[in-house]
From TrEMBL:
Coiled-coil segments on the chain, per record: none
Species the sequence originates in: Burkholderia territorii
Keyword annotations of the record: Cell outer membrane, Competence, Membrane, Signal, Transport
Subunit-structure text: Homododecamer. Tetramer of trimer.
Gene3D superfamilies: 3.30.1370.120, 3.30.1370.130
Segment forming the signal sequence: 1-22
A Gene Ontology biological process term: establishment of competence for transformation
Protein name, UniProt field: Type IV pilus biogenesis and competence protein PilQ
Function according to Swiss-Prot or TrEMBL: Required for type IV pilus biogenesis and competence. Could function as a pore for exit of the pilus but also as a channel for entry of heme and antimicrobial agents and uptake of transforming DNA.
Principal place of residence: membrane
Subcellular location: Cell outer membrane
Region spans: Disordered: 34-67, 523-547
SMART domains: STN
């Protein structure tokens, strides 16, 4: 080649380099740190080495100069791996993979450039590596571009946020980022998803080889069988790993657990949290029947005796207002209603007066206490008190054959208390009172009075459930013997009276919190030789076993 030909080639190469440099933005001011960029080669290790020694090179990568299309499926697979790790994985907790976009809140770093800084880019056929180099110079970030990031980019961005510009380059070329501190690794989204999936699989394989540990837990309050079912997932999510197992000894109330060491520690913390004595609630019920107006008179008498200290659901009431106490409705919780029944909340001082007034009204013949059951139950445990009889009736049992069956006519009280943190009691009430009605061909009818509701009352207070009425119509005839049966003249010796009586049923429920016994396990005894969360020995780290 002649001398003039070599000069022409040199001039053309210099012009091309000047054109590329002119297309890149200027260097940042002196106050901004200068970033760096590095491309992978075959002998350069990746930030996260694969177990099989692969360096990220892929023979199926597109040829140099071809633009990678946006791989939506690969990005969706990456986000799915980040959001929901495989439930089959066991062992220590797996950290979530790093974010894949610069605009994500989790991707921000204290050393990043100010988010308010704007950037303008005018790139014409520039390699992707050069585009990320421009962003590195502008932001001061350390960006590592994988070997599979190839192709050119042509874009024009005017006064946009630098994070948006970074994400635009990622999205338009199907790329994703992985951040470690102030170093960002850029690679195709499919490659990053494959690495995360392989990391999880490696973790799962390592968990299969971890040794198992066994520990014995001496339970104080819950039953070992119940805790065993809880760990095995009988009531929900399984807490043991797929290699773990638990066995219970009901005689000694011991629980034996075999599992991975991290899972054993989690189970120990769970047992330490649930092995506490449950507070108890004493439920006292008074079921009273009286004539119409009985509840109003009772409310007035209680209000006068309490000297104006009556308390209703919405606050304290004066003595004059308390005369209508049982006509006021309490506030049911959670939208529960009880048909036409009315509710009233008595404060604890009025509850102490209630028994005296009920006895006085019973002595006057205005009402009677039908039943007064009492029961003690644990917090959030349903208690049932039932009294009555079973009535026989004829029923078909199949193929035209009739048989005798029984149905109950009982007085039944179901209550489930829940103690709130401030010491109040939430009651789930279900009160049923059945009575025998008129006889029929199939058997006697049963009249039912049923109230079901949910209400909150203070410790020692009383909730009154009223508004359940029964209408009784009677025709009474009194006459003089013999003379009252004489035709026509017998009417002079007879007296006919029609009696319409309306009775009211009122149920009074008084919950009282029974204080839990606080004690610190481990002062000798059967557990003195055990230490750690599984026992209450002298060296135990367990807190005092009380709530």
């Amino acid at each position: 080649m002649t001398k003039h030909g070599w000069w022409a080639i040199a001039f053309w190469a210099g012009s091309s380099m000047a054109t590329v440099d002119a297309a890149l933005p200027p260097l940042p001011p002196a106050g901004w740190p200068t970033g760096s960029i590095r491309a992978y080669s075959e002998d350069t290790p990746l930030p996260q080495d694969r177990p099989d020694g692969m360096n990220g090179a892929d023979g199926d990568a597109p040829a140099h100069g071809a633009s990678l299309p946006f791989d939506e499926a690969a990005r969706a697979a990456l986000q799915a791996n980040a959001a929901a790790p495989s439930p089959r994985l066991e062992g220590p907790p797996i950290p979530l993979p790093p974010p894949t976009r610069m605009s994500d809140a989790a991707a921000r770093h204290p050393g990043d450039a100010d988010d308010a800084r704007r950037i303008s880019l005018n790139l014409q056929g520039v390699a992707l590596a050069a585009a990320f180099d421009a962003l590195a110079r502008f932001t001061g970030l350390n960006i590592i571009v994988g070997e599979q990031v190839r192709g050119t980019v042509t874009l024009r961005l005017n006064n946009v946020g630098w994070r948006d510009a970074f994400d635009t380059l990622l999205d338009t070329h199907g790329l994703a980022m992985s951040r470690r501190g102030n170093v960002i690794w850029v690679t195709p989204a499919a490659e990053l998803a494959a690495r995360e999936r392989e990391r999880f699989e490696t973790h799962a394989r390592a968990a299969e080889l971890e040794p198992l540990e066994s520990r014995t837990f001496a339970l104080h309050y819950p039953r070992a069988q119940d805790v065993q079912r809880l760990l095995a997932g009988a009531t929900g999510q399984r807490l043991l790993s797929k290699r773990g197992a638990a066995a219970a000894d009901p005689r000694m109330n011991l629980l034996f657990v075999t599992d991975l060491a991290p899972r054993i520690e989690q189970i120990a913390g769970l047992i330490d949290a649930i092995d506490r004595p449950s507070r108890q609630v004493r439920i006292e019920a008074r079921i009273v029947e009286g004539e119409q107006g009985f509840s109003r008179n009772l409310g007035a008498r209680v209000a006068l005796r309490a000297e104006g200290r009556a308390s209703v659901a919405d606050g304290a009431a004066s003595a004059a207002d308390a005369r209508n106490t049982l006509d006021l409705a309490a506030r049911p919780l959670g939208g529960f209603e009880a048909a036409t029944a009315g509710f009233t909340l008595f404060a604890a001082p009025l509850s102490r007066v209630l028994d005296v007034e009920l006895s006085a009204l019973e002595a006057q013949g205005r009402g009677q206490i039908v039943s007064s059951p009492r029961v003690v139950t644990a917090d959030r445990v349903k208690a049932i008190v039932e009294q009555g009889s079973e009535l026989p009736y004829q029923a078909k049992v199949g193929n035209g054959v009739s048989g005798v069956q029984f149905r109950r006519a009982t007085l039944k009280l179901e209550v489930e208390p829940q103690i709130t943190p401030d010491g109040r009691v939430v009651l789930d009430l279900d009160v049923t009172k059945d009575s025998i009605g008129e006889p029929t061909a199939a058997g006697p009818a049963i009249h039912t009075k049923h109230v079901q509701t949910r209400v909150e009352v203070e410790d020692g207070g009383t909730v009154a459930i009223g508004g359940i009425y029964e209408q009784l119509n009677r025709d009474d005839v009194t006459r003089v013997p013999l003379l009252g049966k004489i035709p026509v003249l017998g009417a002079l010796f007879r007296h006919r009276a029609r009696r319409d009586q309306r009775n009211e049923l009122v149920v009074f429920i008084t919950p009282t919190v029974v204080g839990a016994r606080c004690e610190t396990a481990g002062a000798g005894g059967a557990d003195a030789g055990k230490t750690g969360p599984e026992a209450g020995g002298a060296g135990s780290t367990r807190q005092p076993l009380c709530q």
